[in-house]
Amino acid sequence: MKTSVVTGGASGIGLELSKLLIQDNYKVFIIDNNNKNLQKLKTCLDTNSFEGIKEDMSSVSSPKKIYNKLKDKNIEVLVNNAGFGDFGKFHKSDWKRDEKMINLHVLNTTHLTKLFLQDMVKKNNGKILNISSVAAFQPGPLMSLYYATKAYILHFTEAIADEVKDKNICISALCPGQTNTNFQKSVSSKKNKIKFNTSCPVKVAKYGYEALKANNTISIPGYFNKFLVFLNRLLPRNIVTKIVRYIQEKNRN
Ligand SMILES: NC(=O)c1ccc[n+]([C@@H]2O[C@H](COP(=O)([O-])OP(=O)(O)OC[C@H]3O[C@@H](n4cnc5c(N)ncnc54)[C@H](OP(=O)(O)O)[C@@H]3O)[C@@H](O)[C@H]2O)c1
Region 62-72: what's the mean pLDDT? Predict the structure, then answer.
C-alpha cells in the first residue's frame, strides 16, 4: 500500500486532502493536535485507511519525532497543512502564540520537509504539498505574522521545487483564499463579515491535490483569488498594504 502523511489532517482542508489520498489508495498518517477530531475520524474514514497520531506540530521536537516514527513506512506524499491564524496588531499579540505560529508554519514545515525530502531524493520518488495562502502574496497588517509565514511557505516551496525539477519529485504550494473551516475561529472570536468569496474545503483540497499530481508549483483555487493575486502585481505595494488593512478592519471589527 502507498503511504502518505498529512499534518492537521483531522479537520478542514487537511481532512479533505486525506480523503482524496485514501481514494487514491494511500494509507494516510494523520497528524493533529486535536484529539477530539482525531477520534471522530473513525466515524468518517475506513479505519484500515489511516492512522491518527496526536502531536503538536509547533513543538520544536515534533518533526524528528514524526520522521523517526514513519521513516520505515516509505512515505510517498507529505502534506504540510497544519496551521492557524491570529488577528490584531503585532505589538499587542501574545509572544507564545506568535512563536507557536512561526514554529508551526516556518521552522517545523521546513524541518519535516527536509527529513522526508532527503529520502524522496534517494528514491527519486515523492510528492510534497505545502499549504500556503493567498495571504502569501502581500503584507497583511493586522495579521502580519500569518501573512509573513505563509509568504515564507510559498517562496520556500517554489525554490525547492525548482531544485528538484530534474527528479521524479513534485513539490507544490496550495494558496487558498477564505475557506469555510474551523480556521476562522482560530483567527478571532469575532466572526468575519466579508463572506462572498468563501470556498468549501472539499473544492479547495481537490484543486490543490490535482495541482500536485499535475506537478504545478503553485495553485490558487477560485477565479476571484487568482484575480486578487494578479491585481497585486499591477498596484504599488504601499497601496496593496493599505487595501489589505482596510479589508481586515472591515472584516473583523
Ligand atoms: N480556512 C481558510 O480560510 C484558509 C485560507 C488559506 C489558507 N488556509 C490554511 O489551510 C491550512 C488548513 O487550515 P483549515 O482551514 O483546514 O483549518 P482547520 O479546519 O482549523 O484545520 C487545521 C487543522 O490543523 C490542526 N492544527 C493546528 N495547529 C496544530 C499543531 N500545532 N499541531 C498539529 N495540528 C495542528 C488543527 O487542530 P485544532 O482544531 O486543535 O486547531 C486542525 O485540525 C492551514 O495551514 C491554514 O493556514 C486556510
Answer: 98
Which backbone phi and psi does 173 adopt, to 5 degrees? -110, 125
Q: Where would I find the H helices in 102-143? A: 108-123
- pLDDT surpassing 90 at residue 1: no
Q: For residue 11, what pLDDT is reported?
A: 97
- Contact call for residues 13 and 21 (beta carbons, < 8 A): no
Q: Is the pTM of this model over 0.85?
A: yes
**Is there an atom of ligand 1 within 6 Å of 219 CB?**
no
**Separation CA 250–CA 246 (nearest Å):** 6
180 alpha carbon to ligand 1 midpoint, in Å? 11
Burial class (CB in 10 A: 0-12, 13-18, 19+), 220: buried
For the stretch 196-228, pLDDT in tens is 788 999 999 999 999 999 999 999 999 999 999
CB 82 within 8 A of CB 57: yes
131 Cα nearest atom in ligand 1: 45
**Homologous superfamily in CATH for domain 2-252:** NAD(P)-binding Rossmann-like Domain (3.40.50.720)
Q: Residue 131 in contact with residue 208, Cβ under 8 Å?
A: yes
Residue 90: what residue type? F
8 in contact with ligand 1, CB cutoff 6 A: yes
CB distance 172 to 157 below 8 Å? yes
SS3 69: helix
Residue 38, ligand 1, Cβ within 6 A: no
Is the CB–ligand 1 distance for residue 198 below 6 Å?
Answer: no
Tens-digit pLDDT profile for residues 132-172: 999 999 999 999 999 999 999 999 999 999 999 999 999 99
